[in-house]
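Aim 2 progress update. The chain analyzed this quarter is reproduced below.
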Amino acid sequence: MSTPLPGRGLYAITDARLIPDEQLTIAVEQALRGGARLIQYRDKSTDDARRRAQAQALNTLCRRYAAPLIINDDVELAAEVGAAGVHIGQDDPALATARARLGADAIIGVSCYDRLDLALEAQQAGADQVAFGAFFPSPTKPTEIRASLALLREARSVLTVPIIAIGGITPENALRLLEAGADLLAVISSVFGQPDIQAAAARYAALCTSST
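Predicted structure tokens:
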């Protein structure tokens, strides 16, 4: 049975630089307890065995909380562990390839950077989510392409799939993104880089609830 796609809320993304290996499942469970609606496993290392073990552990955890686990970039890893889906970028396998590998029920998100045309193409091709960003300076990707609130507003007027906002999001600027049309706030360091992960996640969850 597939995990339902959340329409709105906190999308917490892991980062190996912020979370020691032995703390990964603990940290993610804290984010889930705080109200994270989706979890993305993001690890750019080449240790396949370690990545597989971590993804399997997180998938078991996320299923317990009825929250989809999305794998960053790696379609094969998502298939191997039975994750809810994958998030792909410009240099990752094509959407059609990912869909064929993961099936009709998989959640497939596509990075569209600062380009509405890419989002429209992704939606037409069957993407379940599209992501824009970075909206603000990001410690994770300091040289990332910058997207605007105007783009977000325009995207909201023409897209029907959920829109993910990413890049430098904090509790202080998150409401601007939600009001402009974002459905999901993709956050890394402002959740997993905080001393109280559960409280940090809860703050975003409350913002998402109050802005509906």
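The domain at 9-210 is CATH 3.20.20.70 (TIM Barrel). The mean pLDDT is 93. These observations will guide the mutagenesis experiments scheduled for the next reporting period.
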